[in-house]
Amino acid sequence: MSETGFGPAPTAVRGIRGAGAAALVVGHCAGLVDLVALPVWVGALIARYGFGPREAGALVTLFLLGAVAASLVSARNFNRAPRRALTVLGYAGAALAFALASRQSGFAALALLHLLGGAANGMALSFVHGTMGRAANPHRLFAIAGAGLGLFGVIYMGAVPKLIELHGGAALFLSFAAIMVVAALASLLAFPEVSLDLGQQHGGRFAPGVLAVVAGVSLMTFNQAMVFSFVEVIGHARGFAPQAIIGTLIAIGLVNFIGPAPLAALLEKHLAPRRVVLAGPAVQAALALALTFATAFTLWAPVAAIFVAVQIFTHTFAFGLLARMDPTGRAVAATPAMLMTGSALGPIAGGMLIEGHSIAALGLTAVLVAALSVSCFARGTSRA
After folding, report:
1. How far apart are CA 55 and CA 262, in angstroms?
2. How many CB atoms lie within 10 A of CB 269?
3. Is the per-residue pLDDT at 173 higher than 90?
4. Segment among 61-75, 121-135, 313-327 with least mean pLDDT
5. Rounded to 5°, angle at Cα 50 from 47 and 52
6. Measured in Å, how far apart are the chain's first and last C-alpha atoms?
7. Ramachandran area for residue 8 (φ above 0: left; ψ -120 to 50: alpha; else beta)
8. Three-state DSSP class for 275?
9. N or C: fewer beta carbons within 10 Å in the chain?
10. Mind listing the pLDDT tens digit for each residue in 148-171?
Protein backbone atom coordinates (compact mmCIF):
# COMPACT_ATOMS: atom_id res chain seq x y z
CA MET A 1 0.00 0.00 0.00
CA SER A 2 1.12 3.53 -0.63
CA GLU A 3 1.37 6.29 1.92
CA THR A 4 -1.94 7.63 0.70
CA GLY A 5 -3.75 4.43 1.51
CA PHE A 6 -5.04 4.01 -2.04
CA GLY A 7 -2.73 1.34 -3.37
CA PRO A 8 0.66 1.27 -5.06
CA ALA A 9 2.08 4.03 -7.15
CA PRO A 10 2.06 3.63 -10.91
CA THR A 11 4.79 1.44 -12.37
CA ALA A 12 7.88 3.55 -12.93
CA VAL A 13 8.26 4.69 -16.52
CA ARG A 14 11.71 5.10 -18.00
CA GLY A 15 12.47 8.08 -20.16
CA ILE A 16 10.59 10.80 -18.30
CA ARG A 17 13.68 12.72 -17.41
CA GLY A 18 16.01 15.17 -19.06
CA ALA A 19 14.59 16.46 -22.33
CA GLY A 20 11.40 14.45 -21.95
CA ALA A 21 10.64 15.94 -18.55
CA ALA A 22 11.53 19.41 -19.84
CA ALA A 23 9.07 19.03 -22.71
CA LEU A 24 6.32 18.11 -20.27
CA VAL A 25 7.14 21.13 -18.08
CA VAL A 26 7.00 23.45 -21.10
CA GLY A 27 3.67 21.92 -22.12
CA HIS A 28 2.35 22.33 -18.59
CA CYS A 29 3.27 26.03 -18.56
CA ALA A 30 1.75 26.72 -21.97
CA GLY A 31 -1.39 24.73 -21.28
CA LEU A 32 -2.03 26.48 -17.98
CA VAL A 33 -1.37 29.97 -19.30
CA ASP A 34 -4.77 30.98 -17.92
CA LEU A 35 -3.53 30.45 -14.36
CA VAL A 36 -0.78 32.99 -14.99
CA ALA A 37 -2.47 35.43 -17.33
CA LEU A 38 -6.07 35.67 -16.13
CA PRO A 39 -5.89 39.18 -14.65
CA VAL A 40 -3.95 40.54 -17.64
CA TRP A 41 -6.24 38.69 -20.04
CA VAL A 42 -9.46 40.00 -18.51
CA GLY A 43 -7.95 43.43 -17.93
CA ALA A 44 -6.87 43.75 -21.57
CA LEU A 45 -10.27 42.66 -22.86
CA ILE A 46 -11.90 45.36 -20.75
CA ALA A 47 -9.39 48.19 -21.19
CA ARG A 48 -8.23 47.57 -24.76
CA TYR A 49 -11.29 46.07 -26.42
CA GLY A 50 -14.03 47.91 -24.53
CA PHE A 51 -15.82 44.83 -23.25
CA GLY A 52 -17.63 44.87 -19.90
CA PRO A 53 -16.63 42.49 -17.09
CA ARG A 54 -19.34 40.03 -18.10
CA GLU A 55 -18.29 39.90 -21.76
CA ALA A 56 -14.60 39.69 -20.90
CA GLY A 57 -15.29 36.88 -18.46
CA ALA A 58 -17.40 35.11 -21.08
CA LEU A 59 -14.55 35.11 -23.63
CA VAL A 60 -12.14 33.52 -21.18
CA THR A 61 -14.89 31.10 -20.18
CA LEU A 62 -15.30 29.99 -23.81
CA PHE A 63 -11.57 29.26 -24.01
CA LEU A 64 -11.79 27.18 -20.86
CA LEU A 65 -14.98 25.38 -21.90
CA GLY A 66 -13.29 24.34 -25.13
CA ALA A 67 -10.38 23.02 -23.10
CA VAL A 68 -12.70 21.09 -20.76
CA ALA A 69 -14.55 19.38 -23.61
CA ALA A 70 -11.34 18.40 -25.39
CA SER A 71 -9.73 17.22 -22.15
CA LEU A 72 -12.61 14.91 -21.32
CA VAL A 73 -12.38 13.24 -24.72
CA SER A 74 -8.57 13.04 -24.60
CA ALA A 75 -8.49 11.60 -21.09
CA ARG A 76 -11.01 8.92 -22.04
CA ASN A 77 -8.77 7.88 -24.95
CA PHE A 78 -5.43 8.52 -23.25
CA ASN A 79 -4.26 4.90 -23.50
CA ARG A 80 -5.22 4.48 -27.16
CA ALA A 81 -4.40 7.81 -28.83
CA PRO A 82 -1.12 8.88 -30.53
CA ARG A 83 -0.17 11.11 -27.64
CA ARG A 84 2.89 12.85 -29.07
CA ALA A 85 1.30 13.72 -32.42
CA LEU A 86 -1.89 15.04 -30.85
CA THR A 87 0.05 17.10 -28.32
CA VAL A 88 2.03 18.81 -31.08
CA LEU A 89 -1.14 19.31 -33.12
CA GLY A 90 -2.98 20.75 -30.14
CA TYR A 91 -0.41 23.38 -29.26
CA ALA A 92 0.06 24.32 -32.93
CA GLY A 93 -3.70 24.72 -33.33
CA ALA A 94 -3.89 26.92 -30.24
CA ALA A 95 -1.06 29.07 -31.62
CA LEU A 96 -2.97 29.56 -34.87
CA ALA A 97 -6.19 30.48 -33.06
CA PHE A 98 -4.44 33.11 -30.95
CA ALA A 99 -2.58 34.52 -33.93
CA LEU A 100 -5.89 34.97 -35.73
CA ALA A 101 -7.43 36.51 -32.59
CA SER A 102 -4.77 39.22 -32.63
CA ARG A 103 -6.35 40.51 -35.85
CA GLN A 104 -9.92 40.63 -34.53
CA SER A 105 -11.81 43.05 -32.31
CA GLY A 106 -15.44 41.91 -32.49
CA PHE A 107 -16.97 39.75 -29.79
CA ALA A 108 -18.32 37.03 -32.12
CA ALA A 109 -15.01 36.38 -33.89
CA LEU A 110 -13.03 36.44 -30.65
CA ALA A 111 -15.56 34.10 -29.03
CA LEU A 112 -15.14 31.50 -31.78
CA LEU A 113 -11.36 31.72 -31.70
CA HIS A 114 -11.29 31.48 -27.90
CA LEU A 115 -13.40 28.33 -28.08
CA LEU A 116 -11.25 26.70 -30.80
CA GLY A 117 -8.00 27.72 -29.13
CA GLY A 118 -9.17 26.32 -25.82
CA ALA A 119 -10.14 22.99 -27.40
CA ALA A 120 -6.74 22.61 -29.06
CA ASN A 121 -4.91 23.58 -25.88
CA GLY A 122 -7.00 21.28 -23.68
CA MET A 123 -6.32 18.28 -25.90
CA ALA A 124 -2.56 18.83 -25.76
CA LEU A 125 -2.48 19.49 -22.03
CA SER A 126 -4.41 16.32 -21.26
CA PHE A 127 -1.74 14.17 -22.90
CA VAL A 128 0.95 16.14 -21.06
CA HIS A 129 -0.66 15.56 -17.67
CA GLY A 130 -1.53 11.94 -18.34
CA THR A 131 2.09 11.28 -19.27
CA MET A 132 3.30 13.08 -16.14
CA GLY A 133 1.05 10.79 -14.12
CA ARG A 134 2.96 7.78 -15.46
CA ALA A 135 6.28 9.02 -14.07
CA ALA A 136 8.01 7.21 -11.24
CA ASN A 137 7.13 10.11 -8.93
CA PRO A 138 4.18 12.11 -10.30
CA HIS A 139 4.09 14.38 -7.24
CA ARG A 140 7.68 15.50 -7.73
CA LEU A 141 7.38 15.97 -11.50
CA PHE A 142 4.20 17.99 -11.04
CA ALA A 143 5.97 20.08 -8.39
CA ILE A 144 8.84 20.76 -10.80
CA ALA A 145 6.29 21.76 -13.43
CA GLY A 146 4.66 24.05 -10.87
CA ALA A 147 7.99 25.75 -10.22
CA GLY A 148 8.40 26.14 -13.96
CA LEU A 149 4.96 27.72 -14.13
CA GLY A 150 6.01 30.16 -11.42
CA LEU A 151 9.12 31.17 -13.37
CA PHE A 152 7.00 31.51 -16.48
CA GLY A 153 4.67 33.76 -14.51
CA VAL A 154 7.53 36.04 -13.47
CA ILE A 155 8.65 36.44 -17.07
CA TYR A 156 5.12 36.88 -18.38
CA MET A 157 4.05 39.46 -15.83
CA GLY A 158 7.29 41.35 -16.26
CA ALA A 159 6.99 41.58 -20.04
CA VAL A 160 3.46 41.26 -21.41
CA PRO A 161 1.62 44.05 -19.51
CA LYS A 162 4.25 46.49 -20.79
CA LEU A 163 3.89 45.14 -24.34
CA ILE A 164 0.12 45.61 -24.13
CA GLU A 165 0.62 49.22 -23.00
CA LEU A 166 2.91 49.87 -25.95
CA HIS A 167 1.22 47.87 -28.72
CA GLY A 168 -2.40 47.41 -27.63
CA GLY A 169 -4.55 44.36 -27.04
CA ALA A 170 -3.15 42.42 -30.02
CA ALA A 171 0.06 41.92 -28.03
CA LEU A 172 -1.87 39.79 -25.55
CA PHE A 173 -2.91 37.26 -28.19
CA LEU A 174 0.43 37.31 -29.97
CA SER A 175 2.14 36.48 -26.69
CA PHE A 176 -0.18 33.51 -26.26
CA ALA A 177 0.54 32.37 -29.83
CA ALA A 178 4.30 32.52 -29.23
CA ILE A 179 3.98 30.49 -26.03
CA MET A 180 1.99 27.79 -27.84
CA VAL A 181 4.55 27.63 -30.66
CA VAL A 182 7.31 26.97 -28.12
CA ALA A 183 5.24 24.18 -26.53
CA ALA A 184 4.52 22.61 -29.93
CA LEU A 185 8.22 22.59 -30.81
CA ALA A 186 9.24 21.16 -27.43
CA SER A 187 6.64 18.39 -27.77
CA LEU A 188 7.74 17.61 -31.33
CA LEU A 189 11.37 17.29 -30.32
CA ALA A 190 11.22 15.57 -26.92
CA PHE A 191 7.74 14.40 -25.87
CA PRO A 192 8.33 11.11 -23.96
CA GLU A 193 6.65 7.89 -24.99
CA VAL A 194 5.16 5.83 -22.17
CA SER A 195 3.60 2.41 -21.98
CA LEU A 196 1.17 0.84 -19.56
CA ASP A 197 1.09 -2.55 -17.97
CA LEU A 198 -1.33 -4.79 -19.86
CA GLY A 199 -3.79 -4.70 -16.98
CA GLN A 200 -3.74 -0.90 -16.87
CA GLN A 201 -4.29 -0.17 -20.55
CA HIS A 202 -8.03 0.08 -20.16
CA GLY A 203 -10.23 0.61 -17.18
CA GLY A 204 -13.83 0.78 -16.24
CA ARG A 205 -14.98 2.88 -13.35
CA PHE A 206 -12.64 4.97 -11.31
CA ALA A 207 -11.62 3.84 -7.85
CA PRO A 208 -13.87 5.03 -4.99
CA GLY A 209 -13.20 8.63 -4.12
CA VAL A 210 -11.55 9.70 -7.39
CA LEU A 211 -14.51 11.72 -8.66
CA ALA A 212 -14.97 13.41 -5.28
CA VAL A 213 -11.33 14.54 -5.28
CA VAL A 214 -11.75 15.74 -8.86
CA ALA A 215 -14.77 17.78 -7.77
CA GLY A 216 -12.80 19.27 -4.86
CA VAL A 217 -10.03 20.42 -7.19
CA SER A 218 -12.56 21.88 -9.63
CA LEU A 219 -14.24 23.88 -6.88
CA MET A 220 -10.88 25.27 -5.74
CA THR A 221 -10.08 26.36 -9.28
CA PHE A 222 -13.51 27.94 -9.58
CA ASN A 223 -12.71 30.05 -6.52
CA GLN A 224 -9.31 31.00 -7.83
CA ALA A 225 -10.61 31.97 -11.26
CA MET A 226 -13.58 33.87 -9.87
CA VAL A 227 -11.41 36.05 -7.65
CA PHE A 228 -8.02 36.10 -9.39
CA SER A 229 -9.51 37.06 -12.76
CA PHE A 230 -10.44 40.42 -11.26
CA VAL A 231 -7.34 41.15 -9.19
CA GLU A 232 -6.31 43.94 -11.55
CA VAL A 233 -9.88 45.26 -11.69
CA ILE A 234 -10.11 45.23 -7.88
CA GLY A 235 -6.82 47.10 -7.60
CA HIS A 236 -8.02 49.85 -9.92
CA ALA A 237 -11.37 50.04 -8.13
CA ARG A 238 -9.56 50.59 -4.83
CA GLY A 239 -7.62 53.46 -6.38
CA PHE A 240 -4.19 51.85 -6.28
CA ALA A 241 -1.55 53.21 -8.65
CA PRO A 242 -1.25 51.32 -11.96
CA GLN A 243 2.48 50.72 -11.45
CA ALA A 244 1.79 49.36 -7.97
CA ILE A 245 -0.74 46.92 -9.43
CA ILE A 246 1.73 45.77 -12.10
CA GLY A 247 4.33 45.33 -9.35
CA THR A 248 1.90 43.16 -7.44
CA LEU A 249 1.29 41.01 -10.52
CA ILE A 250 5.05 40.52 -10.89
CA ALA A 251 5.26 39.63 -7.18
CA ILE A 252 2.59 36.97 -7.73
CA GLY A 253 4.84 35.31 -10.27
CA LEU A 254 7.88 35.53 -7.99
CA VAL A 255 6.03 33.97 -5.07
CA ASN A 256 4.66 31.19 -7.27
CA PHE A 257 8.17 30.46 -8.56
CA ILE A 258 10.05 30.30 -5.27
CA GLY A 259 7.26 29.16 -2.96
CA PRO A 260 4.48 26.59 -3.36
CA ALA A 261 5.82 24.01 -5.83
CA PRO A 262 9.33 23.65 -4.34
CA LEU A 263 7.77 23.58 -0.89
CA ALA A 264 5.33 20.87 -1.96
CA ALA A 265 8.23 18.79 -3.28
CA LEU A 266 10.19 19.18 -0.03
CA LEU A 267 7.21 18.33 2.14
CA GLU A 268 5.99 15.36 0.07
CA LYS A 269 7.08 12.83 2.71
CA HIS A 270 6.19 15.00 5.70
CA LEU A 271 2.58 16.03 5.07
CA ALA A 272 -0.35 13.71 4.57
CA PRO A 273 -2.08 14.55 1.26
CA ARG A 274 -5.49 14.34 2.95
CA ARG A 275 -4.62 17.07 5.44
CA VAL A 276 -3.28 19.31 2.69
CA VAL A 277 -6.33 19.03 0.44
CA LEU A 278 -8.67 19.62 3.38
CA ALA A 279 -6.80 22.73 4.51
CA GLY A 280 -6.23 24.25 1.07
CA PRO A 281 -9.79 25.45 0.31
CA ALA A 282 -10.17 26.99 3.77
CA VAL A 283 -6.97 29.02 3.42
CA GLN A 284 -7.99 30.05 -0.08
CA ALA A 285 -11.34 31.33 1.19
CA ALA A 286 -9.70 33.39 3.94
CA LEU A 287 -7.40 35.03 1.41
CA ALA A 288 -10.31 35.70 -0.95
CA LEU A 289 -12.11 37.56 1.83
CA ALA A 290 -9.05 39.68 2.55
CA LEU A 291 -8.45 40.35 -1.13
CA THR A 292 -11.99 41.55 -1.81
CA PHE A 293 -12.55 43.51 1.39
CA ALA A 294 -9.12 45.14 1.86
CA THR A 295 -8.91 48.85 1.06
CA ALA A 296 -5.28 49.40 2.06
CA PHE A 297 -2.59 48.49 -0.46
CA THR A 298 -0.30 47.27 2.32
CA LEU A 299 -2.80 44.48 3.07
CA TRP A 300 -4.15 43.89 -0.41
CA ALA A 301 -0.79 43.41 -2.16
CA PRO A 302 0.66 40.66 0.11
CA VAL A 303 -2.62 38.75 0.04
CA ALA A 304 -2.77 38.98 -3.77
CA ALA A 305 0.85 37.83 -3.98
CA ILE A 306 0.18 34.52 -2.20
CA PHE A 307 -3.37 33.86 -3.40
CA VAL A 308 -2.44 31.61 -6.34
CA ALA A 309 0.25 29.83 -4.32
CA VAL A 310 -2.38 28.09 -2.21
CA GLN A 311 -3.89 26.50 -5.31
CA ILE A 312 -0.51 25.38 -6.66
CA PHE A 313 0.58 23.84 -3.35
CA THR A 314 -2.71 22.04 -2.76
CA HIS A 315 -3.06 20.75 -6.30
CA THR A 316 0.45 19.28 -6.28
CA PHE A 317 -0.62 16.98 -3.45
CA ALA A 318 -3.96 16.30 -5.14
CA PHE A 319 -2.18 15.34 -8.38
CA GLY A 320 0.05 12.81 -6.64
CA LEU A 321 -2.95 11.50 -4.74
CA LEU A 322 -4.97 10.96 -7.91
CA ALA A 323 -2.03 9.29 -9.68
CA ARG A 324 -2.02 6.66 -6.93
CA MET A 325 -5.79 6.32 -6.73
CA ASP A 326 -5.98 5.67 -10.49
CA PRO A 327 -2.74 4.10 -11.86
CA THR A 328 -4.09 3.95 -15.45
CA GLY A 329 -3.32 7.65 -15.88
CA ARG A 330 -6.86 8.55 -16.95
CA ALA A 331 -7.67 10.60 -13.86
CA VAL A 332 -4.60 12.83 -14.10
CA ALA A 333 -5.06 13.06 -17.88
CA ALA A 334 -8.34 14.78 -17.03
CA THR A 335 -6.45 17.40 -15.00
CA PRO A 336 -7.22 20.16 -17.53
CA ALA A 337 -10.90 19.29 -17.33
CA MET A 338 -10.98 19.34 -13.55
CA LEU A 339 -9.00 22.58 -13.43
CA MET A 340 -10.75 24.35 -16.25
CA THR A 341 -14.30 23.34 -15.40
CA GLY A 342 -13.90 25.53 -12.36
CA SER A 343 -11.85 28.11 -14.22
CA ALA A 344 -14.37 28.27 -17.06
CA LEU A 345 -17.21 29.22 -14.77
CA GLY A 346 -15.16 31.45 -12.47
CA PRO A 347 -14.53 34.49 -14.70
CA ILE A 348 -18.11 34.87 -15.88
CA ALA A 349 -19.45 34.24 -12.37
CA GLY A 350 -17.07 36.87 -11.02
CA GLY A 351 -18.15 39.35 -13.67
CA MET A 352 -21.82 38.77 -12.87
CA LEU A 353 -21.19 39.20 -9.13
CA ILE A 354 -19.30 42.46 -9.64
CA GLU A 355 -21.85 43.91 -12.07
CA GLY A 356 -24.88 42.67 -10.19
CA HIS A 357 -23.70 43.13 -6.62
CA SER A 358 -20.22 44.23 -5.56
CA ILE A 359 -16.58 43.22 -5.25
CA ALA A 360 -17.29 42.03 -1.70
CA ALA A 361 -19.71 39.46 -3.13
CA LEU A 362 -16.72 37.65 -4.63
CA GLY A 363 -15.22 37.00 -1.21
CA LEU A 364 -18.50 35.89 0.36
CA THR A 365 -19.20 33.51 -2.50
CA ALA A 366 -15.67 32.10 -2.18
CA VAL A 367 -16.40 31.05 1.39
CA LEU A 368 -19.45 29.06 0.33
CA VAL A 369 -17.60 27.36 -2.51
CA ALA A 370 -14.68 26.52 -0.20
CA ALA A 371 -17.05 24.72 2.16
CA LEU A 372 -18.26 22.55 -0.74
CA SER A 373 -14.66 21.84 -1.78
CA VAL A 374 -13.68 20.72 1.72
CA SER A 375 -16.73 18.44 1.79
CA CYS A 376 -15.72 16.81 -1.50
CA PHE A 377 -12.13 16.27 -0.42
CA ALA A 378 -13.28 14.81 2.88
CA ARG A 379 -15.52 12.33 1.11
CA GLY A 380 -12.94 11.39 -1.51
CA THR A 381 -10.11 10.80 0.96
CA SER A 382 -12.12 9.14 3.73
CA ARG A 383 -10.22 5.88 3.15
CA ALA A 384 -6.82 7.51 3.59
Report:
1. 36
2. 8
3. yes
4. 313-327
5. 95
6. 11
7. beta
8. helix
9. N
10. 887 888 788 888 988 998 999 899
